[in-house]
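Please fill in the sequence for the structure shown.

STRUCTURE ENCODING:
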């Protein structure tokens, strides 16, 4: 009953997602349908759906490595059958990282390890993570302020892969797997046609679509929308998101899918229209706006990603990295440019003072430029770095997305450390 009441408050916007995360922090089980449950542990860890079949348990995703043990323990309180099959909805570690714990349990019980099924591009993603482990460690460590973080690699790869669709019959349960590109290029959503249950993976995340992350590989807004439309045609009675609570009822499930698709279609359509007119990236960024009535929906709030980041991703997908400014084609070394501007301004301290004044007046975008130029011109000047830290604090205060604040915080920490000397 309490979980139902919290869902209604989330649905109408009276409760923030942080409240739901706190409520499920010790793991919570949602009864989805007969022989189907979904296990939640925290918003930032992917949900796990367990389906009881005559062949054993079928799991959609595995949680991350840190929460896999308590997730499996929750499943075991519900059913002690062997895990027969696992479906990865995509290759992100918060959905695949729990496989080690599941395999270890099978080994300890003297059972065969479960078969893993995923899209054909999941193994390629896992190999890419090995090649870029150092970079991913830096990025994730910066974004979440984890000192000395090591990005986990080496999750067990799929035993069976598919291309566009795959029909399965496992222990009397019929499933349809569909591939789509959205947050990743290897994504799967799972449809149980006889149950009316749709497991969306990260195509639905109870937040504005995470399709513009500044420090991640290319993401696919238009195809994300296409996948949501494809889901809509299935008319699900129950929608299980990759993150966040389960959505019951055809009307609500359809509304979430339609709103998400409409929002992305709007951003893609506006961006492409301007690109086709020959606009620069700067002109596009200043002109495109997401429909305010959709951004206000509790399940589309831009609290993690940001519509402006998504526009940049759309531009990059269709237009490459050049933004239309000739100075950016082969730009000057950042330190040289900073030194020249500081000389013109009468010194790095003058640039820093102006940056501080602009930030105080709410012009944080312009202030950030000047603060970085000042710091680039005088990287060892403690006063300049202290001012830079103050400017970035103002930028963080005005930033609505968690991702934007996290990356700004990286450079604020750097400025504070340099100021302290």
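FILLED IN BY: designer on duty
SEQUENCE:
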């Amino acid at each position: 009953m309490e979980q139902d009441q919290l869902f209604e408050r989330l649905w109408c916007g009276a409760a923030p997602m942080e409240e739901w995360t706190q409520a499920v922090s010790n793991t919570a089980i949602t009864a989805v349908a007969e022989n189907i449950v979904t296990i939640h542990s925290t918003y930032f860890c992917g949900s796990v759906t367990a389906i009881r079949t005559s062949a054993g348990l079928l799991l959609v995703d595995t949680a991350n490595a840190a929460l896999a043990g308590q997730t499996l323990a929750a499943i075991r309180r519900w059913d002690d059958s062997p895990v027969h099959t696992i479906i990865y909805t995509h290759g992100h570690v918060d959905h695949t990282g729990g496989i080690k714990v599941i395999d270890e349990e099978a080994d300890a019980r003297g059972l065969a390890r479960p078969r893993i099924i995923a899209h054909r591009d999941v193994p390629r993603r896992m190999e890419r993570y090995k090649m870029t482990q150092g970079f991913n460690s830096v990025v994730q460590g910066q974004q979440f302020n984890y000192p000395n973080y090591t990005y986990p690699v080496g999750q067990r790869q799929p035993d069976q892969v598919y291309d566009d669709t795959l029909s399965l019959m496992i222990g009397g349960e019929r499933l349809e797997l569909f591939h789509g590109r959205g947050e990743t290029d290897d994504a799967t959503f799972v449809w149980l046609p006889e149950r009316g249950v749709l497991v969306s993976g990260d195509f639905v995340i109870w937040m504005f679509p995470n399709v513009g992350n500044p420090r991640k590989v290319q993401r696919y807004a238009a195809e994300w929308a296409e996948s949501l439309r494809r889901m809509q045609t299935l008319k699900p009675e129950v929608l299980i998101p990759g993150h966040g609570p389960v959505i019951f009822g055809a009307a609500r499930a359809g509304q979430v899918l339609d709103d998400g698709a409409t929002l992305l279609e709007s951003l893609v359509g506006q961006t492409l229209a301007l690109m086709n007119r020959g606009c620069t990236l700067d002109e596009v960024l200043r002109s495109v706006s997401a429909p305010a009535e959709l951004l206000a929906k509790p399940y589309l709030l831009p609290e993690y990603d940001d519509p402006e980041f998504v526009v940049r991703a759309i531009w990059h997908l269709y237009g490459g990295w050049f933004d239309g400014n000739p100075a950016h084609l082969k730009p000057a070394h950042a330190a040289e440019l900073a030194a020249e501007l500081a000389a013109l301004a009468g010194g790095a301290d003058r640039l820093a003072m102006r940056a501080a004044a602009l930030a105080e007046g709410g012009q944080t975008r312009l202030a950030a430029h000047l603060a970085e130029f000042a710091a680039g011109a005088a990287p060892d000047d403690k006063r300049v770095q202290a001012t830079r830290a103050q400017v970035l604090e103002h930028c963080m205060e005005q930033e609505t997305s968690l991702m934007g604040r996290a990356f700004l915080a990286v450079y604020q920490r750097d400025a504070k450390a340099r100021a302290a000397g």
